[in-house]
């Protein structure tokens, strides 16, 4: 379809001001946070309300135009890279928090609400929305639901999936489909909201989302445990979980990451340490005291050389600032930063760490490893330059080996970053052909023209 | 297909001993716990392992034979009533607990494992599997997953859906489909395990299920709060939740139920009370003490005339025995006992209770109301005799009004009993046509011959 025609199609629906077709605009929405080449869409549109959103979906379907919904664009697997010549649908004019219900513990939001803004609003109502993906200050709830976003609190509080009580989405015909609801228990109809979580925009376009809220923990305590060996640190992680303690967060940083973070912002991290654990326990004050004491004992039993316990909010913030610095600090070192998220059962963390060290040596690559050790979701981060073709080949081989290693340890290709375009071809190794076929049949049934974020995760020709 | 031919089809696969075709056997598997007429299957088969199970599914599909999987047969919505002339597949030879992993907090089980047996086994490993449907001593995990079973602990701990990390199921071709896994975080592929939970056997046949386990609470305290008005009791429920306390269980019983239970087993319940709340708080001992004190205060503020706190395990058991007695005691009163489970957001419990009283008066029906007040999931239980056609008509009208009332209060047709055959025709009122159409497209895509538990929940011709 010509540029003129495509503009004519959408302008009457979303209005002149909500259509972008300049090369600059289209370029700006051609890529996301994944290390993948972008693709130029034909048009970028910004519906301002439900009705218009539904009409946009129908227009795309009627005209066979591939549609990619974009929230914060923080996707790490290419899930928001459009199809060449396709339509990018922005949700940043649908940002209303429609309801925060303190009696029934839920929130109803539009898809474009920024995660951290919702969390803050919920907190000001005396409640708690736990999912905290690293990109929460810019990511949107719609994107979080589409990707089943995780975060630091996955271990104790679960991930986005665990908080979606219901949602409304548009099918390709622009009809509004309702699933789930405002009750904790609801078994009316297929669990379509469960299916939509993590479907990466391939099965429908979200209109509203109902999220479960919980009472916040009354107290919290943060600790930094310093280790002289990565093995000891990773064994301490396994021992904490096996000790039936579920910290709110249980994060790890290897020596390379520690040094990089300390270079980035002098925070007094021990640059000679082999590994750090950053731990927060929360709950009733008495439980926090007990758990903190037990965590400390377990860390010492596993050869922690030092434990630093935050004595006030300032020290607590310093610990978590260091953790939040990990990715930006690493990303500054080299032109290309490949943030992996292959995930293993938590007890396999020591084996995974060991494998990562071997892979790093074998391919002579710089890999900084940090992440959510408590739920087995590490982020080995490969620092490289994609323009260096020879090294990039090594990076691709290393990633391939990381995947095989995670799968060999009963783990998964992706804990929280999604499959998107980046990992679609690897999926068959984990789930097998029958599973891909089953998903493809669903995709074909609900999106016969293949217009909903095509080529992401569920492909027509899998395997 | 003739009886002879159908026997010949299955005997070589499952073995002579695992095929039942006598009228008595077929009759025994023709009905379930729903107040619905049964349907005679042509054959009942009992596969003894995965391989055979897959072959049975393929055989049914190849021969166009409708297939209904049956666990404990405790279904309250007709979900295990077979199609006339169809195949009942029993899971009671697939009862292995394959793994309880204490380090990584999961269990892997076959579908025929009895819920309470799994819970006991998990407890003996020092862990906790919270979902506790009323039928747990006979219900199976496969059935629980198919129905997304709830239970008393839904309020704090969630329902079956919240514990399914992954599963394997056979598609109609007898291919094994894998979904999810053993990691807390997993976003590889569509969330097919989410879709399968609560799909009532319409989309696949479970082979293995991976369940999340959690550390058990360290302490618990049970209480009985006695009220002179149902309104006061239901307002106390709403006030407890609004007070940001999440009891492990928060149950209610009305006067009719109290008297019936006391008649059934002399337990010292106050037969003159308008309503009882049965409450258990759990967690760290200090939290239990705090929460119990606050619950007591809130109950008194809402005009509880008396609070009895269990001082030992014996008294605690007595409280929960009374709750467990509710259904069997009510069921003894009349030939037919219709156990409803329309569910509302918790703050709407007072309004729902009021509506139930009006409906009971309007149709001059005996309705005992008890259930999971804390999560809005009441069980109004209509005592009647289905053979009395005139009264049965009133019952049907009353049920219709209960549904409308729950939906009017932002609730759902079914909190935990399922849609099955009993409520399929009412679904459109709650989810609308677009949602039914979407589900129907999925069903048709993965089960083109409509052999997987046909006519349950997802119908070919909805609405």
UniProtKB/TrEMBL annotation, chains A, B:
Transmembrane segments: none annotated. The keyword Chaperone does not apply. The keyword Flavoprotein applies. Pfam families: FAD-oxidase_C, FAD_binding_4. Its cofactor is FAD. PROSITE patterns: FAD_PCMH. One of its GO terms (molecular function) is FAD binding. Keywords: FAD, Flavoprotein, Oxidoreductase. Residues 36-216 form the FAD-binding PCMH-type domain. It comes from the Bacteria. InterPro entries: FAD-bd_oxidored_4_C (IPR004113), FAD-bd_PCMH (IPR016166), FAD-bd_PCMH-like_sf (IPR036318), FAD-bd_PCMH_sub2 (IPR016169), FAD-linked_Oxase-like_C (IPR016164), FAD-linked_OxidoTrans_Type4 (IPR051914), Oxid_FAD_bind_N (IPR006094), Vanillyl_alc_oxidase_C-sub2 (IPR016171). Belongs to the FAD-binding oxidoreductase/transferase type 4 family. PANTHER family: GLYCOLATE OXIDASE SUBUNIT GLCD (PTHR42934). This is Glycolate oxidase.
